[in-house]
Write a structure and sequence with these properties.
By secondary structure, the protein is of the alpha+beta class. It has helices spanning 35-55, 84-91, 104-112, 117-128; strands at 3-12, 18-22, 25-32, 75-83.
């Protein structure tokens, strides 16, 4: 569930630019002055909607099939890609304390070498979960 793809409806705004709605997330609305800005805002808004639902243990719907979505004149469909892992890395860097055990000899050698234990663990975990 790292990359998700949801349809968004880009509506032309009367004052110029676009406002965006998501058929699968009625609470999720945003806007932008250009299509590029609107798309970036749509990614952020979708991320907030999805992470909010996850935090509240609410249902995250499957994306509606594009052929099932009707759009009005002046509106068009865009598929918005949301990368959950990239979003969490960007927005949730809160440190969590972990307690672990290693052999004493290994600790002594690592301390003598000036090893940063937190850095080594993070690098190993990134490799283990295939992010490096």
């Amino acid at each position: 569930m790292n990359k998700l793809f949801y349809p968004a409806v880009f509506h032309e705004a009367e004052e110029g630019g676009y406002w965006i709605s998501f058929p699968d997330f009625p609470e999720c609305l945003t806007d932008g002055d250009t299509t590029n800005e609107a798309y970036e805002m749509a990614v952020d808004a979708l991320g907030l909607a999805i992470t909010d639902r996850k935090e509240n243990k609410e249902n995250i719907p499957l994306p509606t099939d594009l052929k099932d979505i009707q759009v009005e004149d002046g509106s068009f469909l865009v598929v918005v890609e949301f990368d959950m892992l990239a979003y969490l890395k960007k927005t949730n860097n809160k440190a969590v304390k972990k307690t672990l055990s290693i052999p004493e000899w290994m600790n002594e050698e690592a301390v003598n070498l000036g090893v940063n234990f937190s850095q080594v663990l993070q690098e190993a975990l990134l490799q283990k979960i295939n992010l490096k």
